[in-house]
Amino acid sequence: MxxxxxxxxxxxxxxxASSLIQGIHYYKKKGTVDVSGxxxxxxxxxxxxxxxxxxxxxxxxRKVGKDVAEAIFAPPNCTAVFEPDVPKTGVKVRMGKxxxxxxxxxxxxPPERTFVLADEKEDELEDVVAVLKETGADVLINxxxxxxxxxxxxxxEACLRAxxxxxxxxxxxxxxxxxxxxxxxxAGIPVVGDDIxxxxxxxxxxxxxxxxxxxRGVKLDRTYQLNFGGNTDFLNMLARERLKTKKVSKTExxxxxxxxDLGWENVHIGPSDWVPWLKDRKIAYIRMEGRLFxxxxxxxxxxxxxxxxxxxxxxxxxxxxxxxxxRDRGIGGPLYxxxxxxxxxxxxxxxxxxxxxxxxxxxxxxxxx
Length: 369
Known about the structure:
Number of helices: 11
Largest sheet: 7 strands, parallel
Low-confidence stretches: none
Mean pLDDT: 95
Helix content: 25-40%
Distance between the termini: 28 Å
């Protein structure tokens, strides 16, 4: 039987793309023996190594024009290298449309900490559409920076015109926007989004504890989640005006589980600062204040320390394969199950146990979306 491949294009060849691509080859070597780190080894007959990168865009001079296998290790990428032997792909990174793809303040930092804007002709919308069609891409992953609202919609529009599935890993509300969702549904294109939720990251841990409070009858009064790290994502987010949708996404991911309103002054969830020497490590501090039986107060404080980008790659592996499975089945529009399972701001929020159950049903063909 011929190999089944999932042809993937990437907009933004940063740390998340690096971890994902390293993982494709890591698990190809490792196979399914003593597997760790995967939520699903097999989805509809698709394994992690069935993912093939066929196109990529970036705006950094150190990545544009290079083979994807080389670009994923170029500065300012700084994530863990767990698979150094990524073979050449034959796919050169193209110059993306800049738009709002970087925060102006990032020019004030040394280039090794941030980006070097490439002096190349930018691909226009028709160029991106043509590449997607020529390469036969099944899926495009949006990895452009937080706050790049125009750039995110640029690639979403390209997918609509090319008939390619769109996975929105960033907190621009596209898949969860009813207008955009309807466009993809009418075009018969399955899409997943918005804002990737890591395997065991701050959001999923905070959600799990919140659900525990609800299930055990403890009233949550106040909570915060403070995040900081050393990659360019955190540097980019020092521009607070770019954080509006990110803050909404992270906050609603937690508060959507509560059957009551905490009040805006009692919840604070969002990126806090950039610490360069942390590189791709992310540290999160979570505090929850609640009331037990008899209104007796109780508190939880937690510190989470993770390598940020590999933590999201497992979720992306599942999102990619579910998008392809939907394409194989002729399903279009937002995929509610895998979006709720792998994204912070899906079209419909579900408790995580329910989202997992829905994904298993989708994989077995018992649920359409």
